[in-house]
Structure formats: C-alpha cells, structure tokens
Amino acid sequence: MGEQILNQVVWPIIYILCIILPLVIAVAMFVYWERKVIGWMHVRMGPNKIGPLGLLQAFADVVKLLLKEVILPTSANKVLYYLAPLLALIPALAAWAVVPFSDRMVLANVNAGLLYLLAMTSLGVYGIILAGWASNSRYALLGAMRSAAQVISYELAMGLCLVCVLVLAGSLNLTDIVHAQAGHKGILDWFMWPLLPVFIIYFISGVAETNRAPFDVAEGESEIVAGFHVEYSGSAFALFFLAEYANMILVSFLASILFLGGWLSPFPASWGFIGQSGFLWLFVKAFVFAFMFLWFRASFPRYRYDQIMRLGWKVFIPITIVWVLVAGCMKYFGWVTVGGL
Amino acid sequence: MIDPQMFQLVCFYAFAAVTVVAALGVISLRNTVHAVLSLVLTFFSTACIWLLAEAEFLAIALIVVYVGAVMVLFLFVVMMLDIKQEQVREGFIRYLPVGIIVALVMLGEMLALIGVRAMHQTLMGANPATAAGVSNTEWLGHALYTQFLLPFEIAALILTVGVVAAVVLTLRHRTGVRHQQASQQVLVNARDRVRVVKMAAVTPAPSPAPGKETTP
C-alpha cells in the first residue's frame, strides 16, 4: 500500500519537479542570454553588473518583480484579472508532460501526444484574451484582440505542419516520431529534408504563436505600450513572462523533436562520444532554435498586422495543405525511409 | 487503498457535476463573458468525461476545436458587444414556454435513445479498440478510412461547401478602396525607390573671418 502511493503519487511529483524547476531556471538564464545577445548585436555590453558576467541579473529581476505590488486597475474584473496569468502559465507548463528528452526519458508517454500538445498550445490564448479584457484598458484590449487573431491564424498552419509529420511517422506518439527519424543515413533520415518547407513554416508559426518579434504586434511597444499585459505588475506580470519564455523553449524543443531527430546524434555511432544519442543532443538542437528567436528579434522590424494575416492565411496554409499531399505521396510510394526501413 | 474502479467512478461524478454546474452557469450568469467562460468549462469537463471513457481522440479534438478555436472566437465577439445586462434578461418570461418545449423534446429524445440502447445490450459491446490491442485514435482512423470512408468524405465535402459559402456571403467588394498589392510590392527593387546621384564633392567657400568683416 505504501509502495503504491510511492509509485503513483510521490515519484510522478518528483519527475514533474525535475522538469519544472530546470525549466524555470532555463527561463531565467534564457532571459539573461537574450539581453546579452541583443546587447552584442547592438554593440552594447548587456547586463554585466550583478554576479560574475552579470549572470545573476535574471534572478535579481525575479526577486524585484516578486516584491512589487500587484496593482488592480479601477473597475477591472477582479476574478478574471487574477485568473488570466494562471491561465496563460498552466498550459505552457502542462505541455511539457509529453515532451521526450531521450529514449524512455519522458513524463507521460501517451499515444496521442501530438494532439495533446496542439490542445495545450491552443489553450494558452485564453490567458491573453482574458488579461486584455479584464484589465479594463484600451491598450490591453487592443493587444488581446490582435494576439487572439494571430494565434488562431497561425495555429492552423502549425496544425497542418504537425499533420505532415504524423503522416510520415505514422504515429502521434512523440517518442515514436523520433524513432521514425533514426536510420543508417544519420542526418539525412531526419524529417527536415522531406518536409523542408513545412519545417521552416513550423518554426515561423511557432514564433508567431508565442507573439515574439517580428510578430509581436500584440505587445507593440511603439503603438499599444505593452498590449495585453500593460496593466499587470509584480508577480502577475512575472507569470506572463514565465509563460511566454516557457512557450518559446517548448517550440524550440518541439522543432528539434519533430524535424531534427530529437535526441538522435547527427554523427555516426562510431565517432565515440559525439556519435552517441542522448538528451544533450536535444538540448543542443533546442538551444539553436532558442537562439534564433533572439536573432530574429534583434534583426527584423515588426510586421504590420495585415502582413501577418496575409502571410498566415495566404502563404503558409496553402503551402502546408499542398505539402500534406506531398507527404502522403512520399509515404505511399516509399520515397522516404522511416525508422531505417 | 483506493480501488481504481471506485476512483474512476468518483472522478466521473466529479466531472459530471462540474459539467452540469457550468452548463447552468452558461444560462444563468449575468455577465456574458462569464457565461462564455462557463461554456468553456462545460466543454473542458465533457472532454474529461470522454477521456474516462477511453475516447481520447474525441476528447482532445473537442478541446482543440471547440475550446481552442470556436470558443475563442465566441469570446472575441462577446467582448466586443456592449450589452446592457438588464436587457438580456427582459425576455426571460416571454421565451420561457418555448424553452420548456425545446427542453422537453430533447429530454424525450434522449430517453428514447437510452431506451433503445438498453433494449439492445449487444450494442454497447466491449471496446473494439481494446479488443484489437490498438489505441482509440488508431482504431478511429482505421474505421473512418475503411468502413465509413464515404460518409466521411461526404461530411468533408459538406463542410468545404459551407466554408466556400461563408466566404462568398461575407465577401464585399467596396469600390474606392485602395488595397496594397503584395505581389507588386515584392517586385519592387531598390532602383525604383532610391536614385543614387554621383557628384563631385563641393567644398563650401570659406566664410570670411569675423574680424575682417567689411561693412557696406
């Protein structure tokens, strides 16, 4: 009986903490890395005062945010105003349940993993809409409207990208999808080659889904101050911040898992340490994508709202629909090897 | 120790209770945004009940389609409406008879359906997916694309016609509006926009020193 409780309650909670705590620390370090990278690209220093090389800057920011007062705007809807940051954060963390870090290193190895991810990422938009509406502010409402329209538009393209992946892999299970990318040809067996346009569209849609530059009209500092979270302060703002960065890291991991072979090594197994598959490879791949988020932000000017809509509906969705057919043909005629067969 | 069967039953009743309470909230809450949110909760707890019934594909599809997309648009529209809360409740008594009739007809239909099911015990046989040893999603895919291919395709066709009809009905061609032609915009190159003029640098004539200024 005690063993049962240990197996069904205690161990899962420990596993969950093993994912959530490093994730939160990763978010803090990612923020530091973002400020450093953007600083270098602007020929500035970036944070360098707190701790060695400014490494403790993110933690100082967290402490500062937690100590600030959470201000409630006049005639804001109190319940929804406090609920919104939680609604943004919960799906962002819940999605990590099905992410496999390595073979058998996954919290929940569910068969409908890809569908679950799609469901969780589509729930995050409620936090944004409710934050915009409940704070009783024009800027916030405008930001929420833009964000909702954008997320829904790009979710379709993203969903069709996932359909391409699952057509090739023949499974909704993320572990099986990675196994389907293993083979003798190493790097050439990854899904990024047969699905190259879809791979690019997936990552761009991921950038748009997380409302990051150059798709950050939802925040648009120059037009609507900070969009949906303009009225939030202190720890409530910190939760939105955490959700956004957790989602960015999630998109980076998913792009690696779905298209770059997850934890598989790009080198032959005979190359010793770097030829071995393992979660370190997944982290390296995800880091490259996470870095690209920052690179985009420092490089591109913001898209205009109608340009975002045109790109999503008139460019991405038609291309992905065609590529679903192409992927079906590839699978049917055996033009692509799946799982080394 | 907790019996798994018992726990499942407790969960079912908990989810069912949340569903019913949330559904009541949809029709009784004064604030329209709150009503839409309780509809979201209704869908979500219905999906939980379906998960308990091992219909994981339907449950997640419900969340993706209804909670993730349809209800977001609902919320979008409701947030934009400027409704006086009292006006909404004005017609309550007037529409009550119609509502009761609709509810009674639905109740009768559901009871008839349950009666039919109860008489044909074999209808609710063992879960075929479990018997075949595959997941619910896989089983559903096989069934849809083999046994029910024609109905499935017809449903898809009807939905496509619906999409086309919706676009055609709402498409308005307004005259006098100047749209941007993206296809022409991307054809532009720098030479059309900027003319680089090469010219010799002209040094301005040195201004006379202030001390030697000649007065006219």
Give me some keywords for this one:
heterodimer; A: 341 residues; mainly alpha; 11 helices; 65% helix; 0% strand; B: 216 residues; Four Helix Bundle (Hemerythrin (Met), subunit A); 2 domains
Structural write-up:
The complex is a heterodimer of chains A (341) and B (216). Chain A has 341 residues and is mainly alpha-helical. Chain A has helices spanning 2-41, 57-67, 78-94, 113-134, 138-169, 174-179, 196-209, 221-224, 234-259, 279-299, 305-333. Chain A contains 11 helices and no strands. In chain A, α7 (196-209) runs antiparallel to α11. The mean pLDDT of chain A is 84. Chain B contains 10 helices and no strands. Chain B starts with a helix and ends in a 23-residue tail after the last helix. Chain B has 216 residues and is mostly helical. At the A-B interface, α4, α5 and α11 of A face α2 and α3 of B.
Task: Summarize the topology.
The complex is a heterodimer of chains A (341) and B (216).
Chain A: H1 2-41, H2 57-67, H3 78-94, H4 113-134, H5 138-169, H6 174-179, H7 196-209, H8 221-224, H9 234-259, H10 279-299, H11 305-333
Helix pairs in contact in A: 1-2, 1-9, 1-10, 2-9, 3-4, 3-9, 4-5, 5-7, 5-11, 7-9, 7-11, 9-10
Chain B: H1 4-28, H2 32-52, H3 56-80, H4 85-90, H5 92-119, H6 128-132, H7 136-145, H8 149-170, H9 182-185, H10 190-193
